[in-house]
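Reviewer 2 asked us to include a model.

Predict the structure of this chain.
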Amino acid sequence: MYYYRRFMGFALGSGSNILMEVRFRCRQQLTIGERSVINERVLIDNRGGVSIGSDVSISMDTQLITADHDLQDPTFGGRVAGITIHNHVFIGARAMILPGVTLNEGSAVAAGSIVTKDVEPYAIVAGTPAKKIGERPRDLSYQLSYYPLFE
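Predicted model (structure tokens):
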């Protein structure tokens, strides 16, 4: 975690973990709250800025994408929009979160889903594009404590 704070310029809360083979697109522009876990092989395209709250679990092979191209622009111009992930969010394996999306408090994204729009608090979303399929309890109070074999 020292490397990420010192050399990458990330703001990382206490107890948070970034596991092996996580990839980033630039230095800085990443904030992670307390006790959050970024699992193996996650891609964080933080060019547009990524803010992750506390007690967030991001599963392996997930992609957080903050930049794309405007397909309607004759010059194929680039666009950048940040991603915000609030507290107690769960993102399943191989999900993709697209530019400008906010995952609100307590929401959950099913494995393999592609999230193109904001997710309301405590909603469970799934599919391509992700749609609401259920709700989580509103009294979430867990605190993650994850200690990987290799850091």
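The first strand starts at residue 11 and ends at 12. The mean pLDDT is 94. We have added this to the supplementary material.
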